[in-house]
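hi! just following up on the protien thing from before. the input was this:
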Amino acid sequence: MRQFLTTLTLIVLTAGIGTAQPPSKSLQNAEKNYLTGLRHSNRGVVESAIIQTMKLKQFHPQKDFTELIKALDSLSIESREKPIRIKAFFASNFLKQSQQDNLFTKNDFEGLADIMESFAK
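and the predicted 3d structure came back as:
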């Protein structure tokens, strides 16, 4: 539990520091941090990173997220936990879609975790 809280604190602090940087550098840092989160051993960190990648796509629709898509595809196939596989598959396909096809708006992310939970059951 302590390791989880420490990791979560580091991710939050790193994301906070990223907001004080130029937008391109901040976006690169966010992508790098989410990749790290997707590879983490703690399920909560992985699930949070999955949701955050979807938010990132929503706010930066023109950005190429090839590395995140690869990590999500890998997670959707190789994760030992079914809910993680389903959420990663959903997020990967979401990142692959064009902006016009997106099912969610920026304001929909409040309930996104609930939506993902219903898919994973």
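Helices lie at 2-18, 23-38, 43-59, 66-78, 82-96, 112-120.
Residues 2-120 form one domain.
cheers
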